[in-house]
Amino acid sequence: SSAKITGMKVERYYDQKKKNVYAFAYVDKKRLAYYSRKLIGANLEKTKQKLTEGKEYLALNDKQNALKSFYEGMPLLAEAEEAQWLMMAINRDQFVENDLKEIRKNKVEISKGISRLQHSKELNIGEAAYFVAYGLFIQLNKCSDAIYAETITFENTGLDSEFSEKWNTEVINALVKTGNYNIKANKTHAIDTKVLNGNYWEEGNQLRVHMQLIQNGNILAAAEGIISLSWLNNEGLAYFPEQLVKIGQLQSISLTSV
Fold first, then answer.
1. What Å distances lie between residue 146 and 177, 190, 194, 217, 219, CA to CA?
2. Ranges 21-35, 91-105, 163-177, 185-199: which has the least confidence
3. Maximum Cα–Cα distance for the chain, whole Å?
4. How far apart are the C-alpha atoms of 158 and 237, rounded to whole Å?
5. What are the tens digits of pLDDT across the range 164-198?
6. What's the gap between Cα 16 and its chain centre?
7. What DSSP element (H or E) covers 24?
8. Which residues lie below 8 Å from residue 209, measured CB to CB, with a gap of 6+?
């Protein structure tokens, strides 16, 4: 397990005769129980604050900060849940039941808040790009290497559009805002560098955008976002590649002899 156990002590003994090394780990149950109860209580209180923040931001139609608040509550609950399992391991079950209900209740509320935001039909391109950037940031965390951002393309055509250019500008700005990353918007880069690319496609009455960060063929992070076609149409932002539009126009032309 990767759990941090407060107060755990480790002692080692070397048997010279058998040439074996033995390690013994032990913990003060009372001290661990006290610390775990304190951590669970504190984290549940912080999570409630994050939920309240998120809802207040939603009421102000500040979707970016609402999402940030909801996401910030997730690691707090994970840490509380871990402490709860330690309580069960040292037979302090009598303290666990109520905390378990509270943790599950908060997890459901946070998940609903995030899902409601991510599937909102009212997202503009900046908000949708921020959600994707934040999803990438959560997986990548800190990164001092330069990230080379390639323009997203339509389906599997390799062709971009006016929407592609606007999206890349927004997602680069969002990545700098969330993780202070060093983003380079050009296509020339070394083989072993970190590259951000992606594609998008029509899905019902919306566009779905998939982005991934790749290095040496390995996917380091991936995230998806959606944006309403009606919003794009209202903004006059073309998402269909111009080359495909021209091909469609050529196909509609009929030649007649005179």
1. 15, 11, 7, 17, 16
2. 21-35
3. 107
4. 19
5. 999 999 999 999 998 999 998 866 677 778 999 99
6. 52
7. strand 20-26
8. 128, 132, 152, 167, 198, 199, 200, 224, 225, 226, 227
In the block, which residue shows the tokens 């700098």? 176
Nearest alpha carbon to residue 103 among 58, 31, 46: 46
> Which of 211, 215, 194 minimizes the C-alpha distance to 136?
211
AA identity, residue 46: K
Sign of the Cα torsion 150, 152, 153, 159 reads negative
Which residues share a beta bridge with 196? 149, 213
CA-to-CA distance for 162 and 206, rounded, in angstroms?
16
Query: CB atoms < 10 A from the CB of 242, how many?
Result: 12
How far is 122 from 82, CA to CA, in rounded Å?
Answer: 37
Q: Give per-residue pLDDT as tens, 144-165.
A: 889 999 999 999 888 999 999 9
- Residue 160, Cα to own-chain centre: how many angstroms? 25
Name all contacts of 30-37 with Cβ < 8 Å and 24+ positions apart. Answer: 31/6, 31/7, 32/5, 32/6, 32/7, 32/8, 32/86, 32/90, 33/87, 33/90, 33/92, 33/95, 35/6, 35/7, 35/83, 36/6, 36/83, 36/84, 36/86, 36/87, 36/92, 37/87, 37/95
